[in-house]
Amino acid sequence: MLDKLASALDFDRQALGLRFERQKVLAGNIANADTPNFKARDFDFSKALAQATARDGSRGQLAMTTTSTGHLQGGGESVGTAPRMLYRVPDQPSLDGNTVNMDVERAAFADNTVRYETSLTLINNRLRNLKAAMQPE
Amino acid sequence: MTMFSIFQISGSAMQAQSQRMNVAASNLANADSVAGPDGQPYRAKQVVFEARGRDGSAGVGVSRVVEDATPLRREYRPGDPNADDQGYVSLPNVQPVEEMVNMIEASRSYQANVEVLNTSKQMMTKTLTLGEG
């Protein structure tokens, strides 16, 4: 029963976690806007979310080869669901090797904030629905 | 704690930028200091930024403060007590225009990081009230 409740919120939990992760990465880019040779980073949110919520066992885990019927299948969840970090392609080269474009980063930051809050609202609504379904009358 | 690492990231950047601002202020203030504590003319200083922390969550820090190696400005002032045999006085190699640009850039970057910090704070506050509404 409780695990059903938890799984109802699992998708939103993953989405929120990844949004927060992205927020950190973007904050790091903005913080390093003047650091020589710093390369701006980001990750593909939809890919990372698809990877984190995959239900068909493709959750970033390796299949185990079994050579005997007594061997166990590795069925646990992988712990390494960290998103794959990519480097941003710079559109304006700079002499000091820094690839942070402040406009891009700030736009992405604002965008990510709104989407994070959207995720929060969705979770709130879902919780309210679950609570309503639990009322006695 | 991972939840508060955004504060650390932006905080480190604010600290680094204000240090840069300090150095620019010191350079501007000493643009005409013919002799420092060591008897030598003041030399312009610059901060060197360095990314800190692991790849994803990188803060920033000042790794060191370097002295500008460009030659000192020399002016012909035969009456000055600091003049050498040929009547020249060595003056600091501070470029006021460059320092002003440095200062404006530091202030803008500082502002951007304050904004990041404020936005993140609002996000956290909203997260803390999750499930109450």
Kindly describe this structure.
The complex is a heterodimer of chains A (about 140) and B (about 130). In chain A, about 50% of the residues lie in helices and about 5% in strands. Chain A has about 140 residues and is mainly α. A two-stranded antiparallel sheet of chain A has the order 1-2. In chain A, helix 2 packs antiparallel against helix 4. In chain B, strand 1 and strand 2 form a beta hairpin. Chain B has two helices and four strands. In chain B, helix 1 packs antiparallel against helix 2. The two termini of chain B are about 25 Å apart. Chain B is of the alpha+beta class and about 130 residues long. Chains A and B meet through helix 2 and helix 4 of A and helix 1, strand 1 and helix 2 of B.
Which protein chains make the most extensive interface, counting residues with beta carbons within 8 Å of the other chain's beta carbons?
A-B, 29 and 35 residues
Distance between the termini of chain A: 20 Å
Topology, number of strands of chain A? 2
Biggest pleated sheet of chain A: 2 strands, antiparallel
Give the helix tally of chain A: 4
Helix content estimate of chain A: 40-55%
Q: Could you give the order of strands across the largest sheet of chain A?
A: 1-2
Rg of chain A, alpha carbons? 20 Å
Strand order of the largest sheet of chain B: 1-2
Rg of chain B, Å, rounded: 22 Å
Main attributes?
heterodimer, A: 137 residues, mainly alpha, two-stranded antiparallel sheet, 2 strands, 51% helix, B: 133 residues, alpha+beta, two-stranded antiparallel ribbon, 19% strand
Could you write a compact summary of the structure shown?
Chain A is mainly α. Chain A has helices at residues 2-8, 10-31, 45-53, 102-133, and strands at 41-42, 86-87. Chain B starts with a helix and ends in a 5-residue tail after the last helix.
Describe the secondary structure blueprint for this structure:
The complex is a heterodimer of chains A (137) and B (133).
Chain A: H1 2-8, H2 10-31, E1 41-42, H3 45-53, E2 86-87, H4 102-133
Chain B: H1 5-29, E1 45-52, E2 59-67, E3 73-76, E4 88-91, H2 96-128
Antiparallel strand pairs in B: 1-2, 3-4
Helix pairs in contact in B: 1-2
